[in-house]
Design goal:
The chain has 3 helices and 12 strands; from the N terminus they run H-H-H-E-E-E-E-E-E-E-E-E-E-E-E. The protein is mainly β. It has a single domain, classed as monomeric porin ompg (Porin), CATH 2.40.160.40. Strands 1-2-3-4-5-6-7-8-9-10-11-12 form a 12-stranded antiparallel barrel. Strand 10 and strand 11 form a beta hairpin. It starts with a helix and ends with a strand. About 11% of the residues have low confidence.
Length: 254
């Protein structure tokens, strides 16, 4: 509890971004946080970091009404040394024309910071021990520990991460993605990416457990990708699964 409070106090002191991470989010704070995340990405690019920026539009028809969501997803990752790696991810969403008045024009954000130590193991791919700090929307910072594994070969790449919150409300979180982006001699290259996240509380699924998925299918050329997107929530909840069909534009900067 003391560790979580310390991390949350430190995060809250970051101008604008601190409001995104630790307080109720207002549109101007979310916009400033997204801009700051983009700025961090461009700054990190000069230090040989990998930067991925993605803008997504999705709509979810609810009865005779349709909710629309705009999302900016920023990922900055790189290595600090031969064995130390890091990543920072921020997702900022704006709900537009939602049939629920409490969600209409609501801006939300989530951030995740990873620091990993790469292990020297006699196996394909790379595994590492992780220290993770997640910042749920409107909540306190949550420190976690875990492991991850990454492998890439001939246009295919896969990643899986598992980590534990050992403080209040202990839970296990599993995250992973797989992508297929072979480089061809044609004018564009195929691009497919599937991503999933599952949170499992120790006290049972009904105490806040959730699962979500994201699908991207399109084409890529010179680091730019665009195509169909689907963000899926409500998986395993027993209720209706929400699917936000739309489109995405993505750029990778290295």
């Amino acid at each position: 509890m003391e560790i979580r409070k310390t991390v949350n106090d430190i995060a809250g002191k970051v101008p604008y971004l601190g409001d995104i991470l630790t307080k109720e989010i207002k549109p101007r704070h979310a916009l400033a946080g997204a801009v700051l995340a983009l700025g961090l990405g461009y700054a990190a690019e000069s230090n040989a970091a990998n930067v991925r920026l993605e803008a997504t539009y999705g709509s979810d028809r609810q009865g005779d009404k349709k909710a629309e969501v705009y999302t900016m997803d920023t990922l900055v990752s790189g290595k600090l040394s031969n064995h130390l790696k890091y990543s920072f991810r921020n997702r900022t969403e704006m709900d537009v024309d939602n049939p629920d008045p409490e969600k209409d024009n609501k801006v939300g954000g989530m951030s995740l910071i990873n620091l990993g130590y790469l292990l020297d193991l006699p196996m394909p791919g790379k595994a590492s021990v992780l220290g993770v700090v997640s910042f749920p929307p409107g909540g306190e910072a949550v420190p976690r520990i875990g492991l991850d594994y990454f492998i890439a070969d001939k246009g295919f790449a896969g990643y899986i991460q598992g980590h534990r919150n050992l403080g209040d409300n202990p839970n296990t979180e599993l995250f992973g993605w797989a992508s297929w982006n072979p480089q061809t001699d044609g004018p564009v290259n195929p691009y497919v990416r599937v991503e999933g996240l599952t949170n499992i509380p120790d006290t049972g699924w009904k105490d806040g457990g959730f699962a979500l998925g994201r699908v991207r299918v399109g084409v890529e050329k010179d680091g730019w990708a665009a195509g169909y997107s689907n963000d899926i929530t409500g998986i395993g909840s027993g209720g209706e699964i929400d699917q936000k069909h739309g489109g995405f534009v993505q750029v990778n900067l290295k």
